[in-house]
Fold each of these.
Amino acid sequence: MTDPALSPWIAVFTIVGLWAVLVVTPGPNFLATVHVAATRSRREALMVVAGLALGTFIWATASLAGLGLMFQSAAWLYHTVRIIGAIYLIFVGITLLRSAARRSSVSVPGISVAKGPRGAFRLGLITDMSNPKAAAFFTSLFAVTLPPGAPFWLQAVAVGIVVAMVVVWYGLVALAMRSTLFRTLYRRGQRAITALSGALFAAFGIRLASNG
């Protein structure tokens, strides 16, 4: 029989394991981090990471507050957020594809990655917030890991863990992509890489739109 005193720590370790698998899996967050790290300054790359961290914090805390259950009971709200997120990802993808075709710098109106730290932060935040399935994931994650009536401190630790893992992983990715070797390779294949990134962003958006 499991020692009740160990239950909170079992929950913590389970969250770490499950969340780690999802975080390291390449997706829109990874692409946004890599693109800015390769084309802009280190500060802007880290601001993308800050935006991703804030988005994760919002989804995680909202899920603990019952947003996932709200999405289940109000399907129209979930689908509205999903379609908006899908449109955003497709829009970024098309912008990158057009940039690759024109061999120009990337500038997404209102969410530019070419206009300083604020634009990079917005890119990270909106990219992370564009997937409403995060609410469902966090709701499920916390439901199966946190014991019923989990104390506030344990909920706070759970949110802190998922945010910290986002900061550490994408921070490492951003710094690695700033290496001289990678930037040299990126410059040699910049047009192809930009086109590939655009295609993947658009594909993620289409998948989000079609998988309700």
Note: The chain has one domain: 4-210.
Amino acid sequence: MTNATSERSRTTGRVVEGLSHALASYSSNVRFDDIPQDVVTFVKHCLLDWLGVTLAGSREDAGRIVREEALEQGGSPQATLIGVGSRTSIAQAALVNGTASHALDYDDVHFAFLGHPTVTVLPAVVAVAERDACNGRDLITAFVAGVEVGSRIGLYVTEAHYARGYHATGTLGTFSAAAGTARMLGLDSETCATALGIAATQSAGLKSMFGTMCKPLHAGMAARNGQYAALLAKRGFSARRDGIECSQGFADTQSPVAAPEGVLEGFGEHFHTRDMLFKYHAACYGTHASIEALTRLRNAHSIESGNVDKVEIRVPTRNLKVCNLQEPRTGLEAKFSLRQVSAMALAGKSTSDIAVYDDNICSDPALVGLRNKIQVAGDAELARGTSEVIVSMDDGVVYREFGNVSVPSKDLDNQGRRLEDKFVTLASPIIGDGKALKVVDLVQKLEQLESMDELIQRCH
């Protein structure tokens, strides 16, 4: 953090005065050469994963409906709708691509951000990159700016924001998209602070909508609204430049708790982009630790689901309000049911195959019978991203396993290979094997690309 930024920000009680300006200053001044190589690699992983889930999500009802409405409305052909190739305005592209990329709930997550940052930042900045012929280095820098700003706001408002019922992908994502777009547009720090103020008054998203199409819409709206905030700020639109921290501002109205300590520390040293967690199961991330633990037990002990007497699953208490639908009726609801996905894991059903999550999976007699043997309980002592599972067999044998999906990978080569496999699996049915492999190659050399044209052209 620069000296100028330090002088303008100070902590008073729960308020960091100058927070918006400090975030805007960082976002406006970060350069590609400031970004470590491993962070650049993370960005490439995020981009490849985003393209894969967006291609697949473009075929989901949520992605289709939003796209159809956008195409009927029309718009200047500035940017591409991933998976279909139609071109429309950058605002509509951000909305449509953002919604599609979260439609499967198969995109990356971030614990400081309290949600899914990539599906809010990339739809906004990729559209602008297309329109303005920006290069790969510009895209990487804008993405990092957006993720860092959103993550630090997430740390400021704490999990209390999420616990109150706000979907952080929609709320914090609006700031991330604004900061990323502002960086792509080259806005100075004062104008970027204005963009964050405009974002503050647009941020929205309710957790009560989980299991419906509104959840992915939150990502699309965050991408569009954040992008729009930066575009308006560039034209001179006015807003408070302390909209995050001011009285009756974002934090004051949307979180009962604020944690100002350390929010502004480590700019240029600690990159929250390194803390991205990727999904290898096509369900809510709150279910992944349980899926991993049950899968290990099943494989290690050759468990036959028909011989299971009962299953006890302990998860962090916070998960009970997120992914504990008891009797899911649709494939979309199944993604938010610990009992359902746990039954699938124990029965050997693929939880990574997006085609498995249809309405029939919820009424399959064998799975319903197994699901009814599963009890889920919250445990306030369990850390986020963990789970303990206890499987009792009908012969009296009891198996116990612990799952932990809270730690970002340190083996980036292995992570890259896993994400390439995931991308090809998602993308090939839509664009073919040849295009899919070419996209992988182009993403790997992202910083060398002079524009996004060839990459985007391969994605439909």
Note: DSSP finds 18 helices and eight strands in the chain.
Amino acid sequence: MRHRYAYLDPELVRSLLAAIDLLRLFNQLLLAAAGDAARAREWMRELQGRGYLDEGLDLDRFFAQLEEQGLVSPAAAGGALTASGARQLRRSAFEEVFASLAKAGPGYHAVQAAGEGVDSLPETRPYAFGDELSAIDPVRSTENALRRTKGDLDLAEEDLEVNEREQLTSCATVVAIDISHSMVLYGEDRITPAKTVALAMTELITSKYPNDWLGVLVFGDRATRIELSDIPGIQVGPFHTNTCEALEAARAMLAGRRHPNKQVLLITDGKPSAITEGHAVYKNPYGLDLKIVNRTLEEADRCRRQKVVITTFMIATDPMLQQFVEQLTKVNRGRAYFANPTDLGGFVLADYVANRRRRVR
């Protein structure tokens, strides 16, 4: 075999890699800037001025390429993120969060039960009239015929076995993101990983699970449903944590869905510190207020009765808060993870893919 070698300019390789890294950095800054592309550009220039980026990098050329590719509008028009830029941001979040996980198959959720599906299971059952001939297991069927006839290959209908198939299902999910002040307390940014996860979930469901449905809400003093396109602009405010209303709003969003599986992915780093009473909000940021705790647990139980599973991703290590989450999980019969903000996406996707393999009963 003949091989041909060609010269590869190392400067070209470095420039390509630099462009990739710059785009990743720009996307991260874009999330931290609540979708403000102009602010993200300013931060990149500031990073270069402080020496964090190579002074030889041509940021003006990079920003011009973003405009040429249609990811941001021209500076004269405001330089805002475009629809193409939003799609690229979702893909970037998906790649960042899910790169280390195994592929999830053809885009359907497998249930741990046999039924009408795509993939064959190793288990077999006797052939019944109406079964597809392509599902017949030739090896098991031949073995049955040889065993019955004691060595003569005389195949009869009673010898036939067919492979079981994985049953396919769909899922409706609400991602509920805590936007209380504690999500940026003590200088630790927890809201950006939460937004990254929500963007990655959007891309996952759109591209691989088209039969699924995803909704997003944010909650502080009150819970508010937002559109998927609003995710990059999520901002933390001087809010308390109304977990009870978040669960109630998520349950209402899921009520009209006909998907066999329904779940809430609750991303929070603090204890519930508010509940809604009529048109007013009762708040208590000190300790675990039993009035607030009990109302929140009651809502978790309502979710259970409506077959809505709550998966809590708690970004906290306080034993008192962990005890509350464990209690909420027990009441709902859901799941709980004590996650690290730097690996929150891995937690969420692993749960989303793995736990859609069974039907909620």
Note: Confidence is low (pLDDT under 50) at residues 1-8, 100-119, 357-361.
Amino acid sequence: MTTPKHCLVTGAAGFIGSHLCDRLLLLGHTVTGLDSLITGRLANLETAKTYNTFNFLEQDTAAITPSTLEGIDWVFHLSGLADLVPSIENPGKYYHANVHSTFALLDACRHAQIQRFIYTASSTCYGIPDRYPTPETYPCSPEHPYALTKYLGEQLVMHWAKVYSLPALSLRLFNVYGPRSRTTGAYGAVFGVFLAQKLGGQPFTVVGDGTQTRDFTFVSDVVEAFVKAAGSDLTGEIINVCSGEPQSVLTLVELLEGPIVHIPKRPGEPDCTWGDIAKAKTLLGWQPQVSFPEGVSQMLANIDLWREAPVWTPDSIQEATKEWFERLGKN
């Protein structure tokens, strides 16, 4: 058992951040959760708030100073903006949230002499790769501002590890799913869209022919990767975190059980996401534990969490993704 640490989790009220808070607290660590609540939800922290070793700060990550980090041992940086479409519409907002905020946090950590810094990167940095499973050494080619800003944040982290000897790791997450995944906002992740459609009695909107595959990874497995990363002595490494077993959208539809309607394939999206997890297994001693059918079953058991989510239709999706098609010039 690792000696209990005082952990800072940015984006604590978000999907993955809240699960990470719960896990760290269960392991006996003290946790300070930080979130601006622009996209995070306090409801996600109901479990964390039952621990007297948890406290919450409503604050923008960009406003962090070394004094904010007084007494902090480990920093888990999960705050930021997700979603592809809004990043195309407002790249400046994404630059602030995903790049500027990361810079501000890193510099505060440098001065505060933090013991461990774990960054949440995105597999979207690979763009549309032609090598599967995709290793961490594959050249990055972001297709949209969200992917670019997450990649730039990762480059900052690696630079601080090299130049300032900040003990930092970057975990490149693939398609994470599980309870508490976002239920509102712009058109986004397939799980939230499909579960809301199932509740609303609408057909599943399958992009293209549905044979495209995604490396779906259950949130509890992702959280364990964060814990193992923090407890390791590694630094300056970029590590894929994924299941290593991609599943087709049609397989997901079969498990969810419902009618489908096809919508046009979207530019800038790969036909496959499939990460090479050899590095995670070797360096972290980590591998996923939750099978895809088991994970989908858990999602269905918690389907009521998506009752407030928008129910997308082919027409509303077309309107929401209009700029996506226009900006990438492939409408």
Note: The mean pLDDT is 94.
